[in-house]
Design goal:
317 residues; alpha/beta; TIM Barrel; eight-stranded parallel beta barrel; two-stranded antiparallel sheet
Length: 317
Amino acid sequence: MRTQHLQRAQVEVSQLTLGTWALSGRNNFGPVDRQEAIQAIRTAIELGVNHIDTAPVYGNGYSEQLIAEALEGGYRDKVLISTKFGLSPHALQKMTHDASFKTVIREVESSLMNLKTDVIDFYFIHWPDLHTPIAETMSALNLLKSLGKIRFLGVSNFTQEQIEEAEKYARIDVMQLQYSMVHQKHKALIEWGSQRGIDTFTYGSLGAGILSGKFRTLPPLKLGDTRITFYDYFKEPKFSKIQNVLQVMDEIAACHQASVSQVAINWCTQSPGVSTALIGMSKPAHVRQNCDAFAWQLSDDEMTRLDAAMEREKIAD
């Protein structure tokens, strides 16, 4: 497993992070077997993954609680945990943003309890709250850091301007952004952050699974599935365009006797400014396959070839 030394946090993080949005089950990415998911988490740690990402909104605390169970028996000491605050489901099936002082204090205690830990390593503002002054949010985070409840501060889905405003009140150590071969909108922001000393954790790194190569025809997704409500890769015309890119990925994967998903993981983690890529993995077999991506790397020519394929299809927005 390759690792990255974070500039501000000054810790080593595996370049593969276990993302747990999908582990919440329900309408997110389909049903998940709890015991198999726990074994997947432990397998990832045994193979060198030392970072797990979650959030209370992933199954209303279910994902955090599942992680806590998986980390029993000494596994907690081997990993860094990221969780978030400020995003919660609304009765009308909408998400509400609340990063007020009282919410930060309340949510951190809930996450600590769910995770059965004394400290959260990376604590992220899940989405910008446009109704709460960022000074108020950061004052709460500064307090939690002084109390030893959190170690490092992170922002997720923030713009450069929002990060600069937040940094007037506290140091931002890391940021989390959607980034993959099929979603490069934040490329410049990632490189800006790296130059400033803010490391990036990418999510959606396999394009909600479409870059795994598993889906060659449009699957019948249920209403509410995150792959059609949050992401847009399983909709036309983008789906068909991505299939053309997958053909190039197939050829490169064959040259390395590797999987298509390993090509996508290497492309993401070899991109400038990316420290670690969040990948959802609910089965031990998937964990092993994705960890095997770090046994090899894409050449400069292969990176260029993939970039050219995406440019032809005009999908890397």
